[in-house]
């Protein structure tokens, strides 16, 4: 499989956090990344090219007067917060998932990121009664981050880690599997990162297909509670996120004339 990363300059990201979305139910990860890219001061620094991506090209999603185009997968740099943010706008072909996952992990390892955060989602109807009393977010940490990052997320932010379940009864079972239907490559990527000692944290939001904008705000707010990307009280945070102009076309509005 062809996979390459093209950047405008050589950058040292050893002290940076990589944030990337999983193509999953409701596209919550990608919508959240859109909020990050629209709100933070970021610079487009490159693109990921792979024969695994379904081809895509479109107008600039962040400016009313387009300043360029978007492709299947682009890479942005936020110097202020030492973030590298990947936006994947096209899904991976079903028969290329394993190859893509291997190539993606290899790219991550080559750049020696401090940690990787995967924004993902899964079907809400698999929540338990206990889950209904909490925020619809759970997390997973690879073994090397369990004591440090995992303990902080649980004790300081009140997040709960995703439990293992029996694959037939769905009851909690420490010998069971990580049950996250609708999350795309999230589980396989997490398991491979665990094996290859890649520092990965998965944020998993329970949701249903539909208007997933509120879910994106929920995930962005929770991520902000951790990384402190924007300021403001809890009641003000949604007002602080800048909504991309492309969201005006989310539900079938007339397409912009400049795409023709």
Describe the structure.
Keywords: Chaperone. Belongs to the PSMG2 family. Chaperone protein which promotes assembly of the 20S proteasome as part of a heterodimer with PSMG1. It comes from Limulus polyphemus (Atlantic horseshoe crab). This is Proteasome assembly chaperone 2. By secondary structure, the chain is an alpha/beta fold. The protein has a single domain (13-237), classed as PAC-like subunit (Rossmann fold, 3-Layer(aba) Sandwich), CATH 3.40.50. 25% of the residues lie in helices and 25% in strands. The chain is built from six helices and 13 strands. It has helices at residues 28-39, 97-111, 146-155, 186-195, 213-227, 237-240; strands at 3-7, 17-21, 43-50, 57-59, 69-71, 73-78, 83-88, 115-123, 137-141, 160-161, 164-165, 177-178, 200-207. It has a nine-stranded mixed beta sheet, with helices on both faces. It has a two-stranded antiparallel sheet with strand order 4-5. Strands 11-12 form a two-stranded antiparallel ribbon. Helix 3 links the parallel strand 9 and strand 10 (160-161). Helix 1 (28-39) packs across helix 5. The longest helix has 15 residues, at 97-111. The radius of gyration is 18 Å and the shape is globular. The two termini are 32 Å apart. The mean pLDDT is 88.
């Amino acid at each position: 499989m062809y996979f390459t990363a093209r950047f405008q300059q050589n950058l040292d990201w050893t002290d940076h956090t990589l944030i990337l979305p999983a193509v999953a139910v409701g596209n919550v990860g990608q919508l959240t990344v859109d909020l990050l890219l629209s709100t933070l001061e970021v610079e487009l620094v490159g693109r990921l090219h792979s024969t695994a991506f379904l081809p895509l090209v479109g107008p600039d999603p962040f400016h009313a007067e387009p300043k360029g185009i978007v492709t299947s997968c682009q890479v942005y740099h936020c110097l202020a917060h030492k973030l590298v943010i990947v936006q994947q706008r096209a899904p991976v072909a079903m028969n290329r998932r394993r190859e893509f996952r291997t190539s993606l992990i290899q790219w991550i390892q080559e750049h020696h990121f401090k940690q990787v955060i995967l924004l993902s989602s899964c079907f809400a109807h698999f929540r338990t009664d206990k889950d209904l009393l909490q925020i619809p977010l759970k997390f997973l940490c690879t073994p090397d981050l369990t004591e440090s990052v995992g303990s902080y997320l649980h004790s300081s932010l009140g997040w709960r880690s995703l439990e293992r379940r029996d694959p037939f009864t769905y009851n909690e079972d420490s010998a069971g599997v990580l049950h996250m239907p609708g999350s795309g490559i999230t589980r396989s990527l997490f398991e491979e990162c665990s094996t290859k000692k890649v520092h990965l944290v998965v944020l998993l939001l329970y949701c249903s297909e539909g208007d997933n904008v509120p879910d994106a705000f929920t995930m962005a707010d929770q991520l902000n509670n951790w990384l402190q990307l924007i300021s403001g009280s809890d009641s003000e945070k949604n007002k602080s996120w800048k909504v991309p102009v492309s969201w005006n076309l989310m539900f079938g509005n007339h397409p912009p004339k400049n795409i023709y």
